[in-house]
Write a structure and sequence with these properties.
323 residues, mainly alpha, 11 helices, globular
Amino acid sequence: MSSTIASPQLWAVSIAVLLGLLALDFVLTRKPHDVPMREALAWSVFYLALPAAFGVYVWLAHGAEPGVEFFTGYVVEKSLSVDNLFVFMLLLTAFAVPTKLTQRVLLYGIVGALVLRGIFIAAGAALLSAGTWAFLLFGAVLIVTAAKVLRDALRSTEHTVDPGQMRVTRLLRRLMPVTDEYHGARLTIRQAGRRALTPMALVVAAVFLTDVVFAVDSVPAVYGVTSDPYLVFATNAFALLGLRALYFVLRNALAQLRHLNHGLAIILAFIGVKLVLHWAHTVWSAVPDIPTPLSLVVILATLGAVTATSLIANRQDRVRMDA
């Protein structure tokens, strides 16, 4: 078993708090409404303060090393979750989700992501306990993913989603009839004497499918920072909990981060190399092992650089349009 800072009591308290926060989100989204910027900002600040306070607790109670690992893992997961938000935005647009229902769709997506990542985290812990070769496997997955992300970024192709061509929507349409219109947040209704799906069910299924893809990338990425399954769980949970509010804050800014995928490719490749080197270090001690504080510096520097280059490129485009 991988070593962990968590006692059974800490696991129980953490899961109880997580379920409580999710229950609160379901209560808040029970009545669909447009989310004003003030509300979105307030919840975003709250969900940024929570991991900051938790990281300080980990640092003080368990030492600097787990504290740095948590903050580094959180930054990695938060940066990947922004890309997750971008895909959610495409799905919401493609399925013509009414603005008032956006919160509930995002919440379904977050719950699905948490469940899937919990499964992947448990599987990752089992692999790591089986031998250090798992680090090599995780590293290879991240390097291959980084190459694909960079290739797509360099092609500068527009991301589009065609709901009619998605396998999950085609499968659901074969299994049950689908209504033409949304019926609030309901997933099914009774129509002409039989149960039918609403478009809400299709978009939720599509969001769950994208959650699987992101779990494959994000869990190995944070295992590249820490082998403690509790810290992997905590970084994923904190990064995902604030996505609903963050979406409304970044909705207009997401499309402006044109170099985000370039940065994510660099981060994934760096962590992949870090994992491969860590595996090699366990076999040949002369191979260097990249320390976590250096990883945090590289990740923050990369995110800062791609944000700056995106803003500069956007400004240059505006100047050319005005000329």
